[in-house]
Design a protein that fits this description.
The protein is 33% helix and 23% strand. Helix 1 packs antiparallel against helix 4. It is globular. Keywords: Ligase.
């Protein structure tokens, strides 16, 4: 199968609307043809990820779930199991936001609440290890992306390579072995996409509703081209591997 798989992790009616918005962001950012991508939304324990080996690459969107919860309900346990299937399969995979914390935790690291980032722009600085990484080809040493999260990675395990850090969050981009990447920032979003996403999370604690207009106005000044390029690099990397 010469397709990409896009996985979203959204529950309920609102979750389905968010997942469709995320799909549109991925298509616009990568330039992938809609026929090239299969979208599956894990909205219940009844939904399972198909065999990842049937796809040339997998992208997993964000989630309202929290790794730092003391206990996990049945749905979150199911999501964790499905994500484990992905990283075990060997298929190139890119995890966004929630997936960074999950990947760090699942591979021997830890997640805490020490470096949250308010909704808006983040500064991302490439580490030396990024020099030979296929997703970082052509990226400036320092660039900006859009973010908003309550949790942050506190430590990573021995099989994790740190590719980018930042002044407000120490782990912005990591790689597991040679086939799984995870970013704290949303490389698929531009100012318009973040404005849409913020409307869904108006009262979820990521930002104060009173600051909504001010944050939206600030987004237009943030250059997200390099963050988009990272997602496109992933798409192109998967295509190269599929035809080599």
């Amino acid at each position: 199968m010469n397709q990409f798989l896009f996985v979203t992790l959204r529950e309920g009616t609102t979750g389905r609307a968010i997942s469709e918005s995320e799909l549109g962001d991925i298509i616009r950012t990568t330039g992938i043809a809609p026929a090239e991508i299969k979208h599956i939304n894990i909205d219940s324990v009844k939904v399972h990820i198909p065999n990842p080996r049937d796809y040339v690459g997998v992208i997993v969107g964000g989630s309202a779930l929290n790794v730092t919860n003391e206990t996990y309900d049945e749905y979150q346990q199911h999501v964790h199991t499905q994500l484990q299937k992905l990283i075990d399969a060997g298929t190139p995979t890119l995890l966004i936001c929630f997936g960074l914390g999950w990947l760090a935790s699942a591979t021997g690291g830890s997640v805490d609440l020490s470096h949250p980032e308010e909704t808006g722009g983040s500064t991302i600085a490439l580490e030396k290890a990024a020099a030979n990484d296929p997703l970082c080809i052509g990226l400036p040493k320092v660039f900006h992306g859009l973010s908003g999260h309550k949790e942050s990675v506190a430590a990573v395990g021995p099989e994790i390579t740190v590719l980018a850090s930042g002044p407000s969050c120490p782990f912005q981009l990591i790689r597991y072995r040679d086939h799984v990447w995870a970013s704290q920032f949303h490389g698929e979003m531009d100012a318009e996409a973040m404005e849409v996403r913020m409307k869904f999370f108006m009262n979820s604690g990521y930002f104060s509703p009173e600051d909504y207009e001010k944050i939206v106005a600030s987004l237009r000044y943030i250059d997200t081209n390099a963050a988009h390029q990272l997602v496109r690099n992933f798409y192109q990397h998967c295509r190269r591997l599929a035809t080599s």
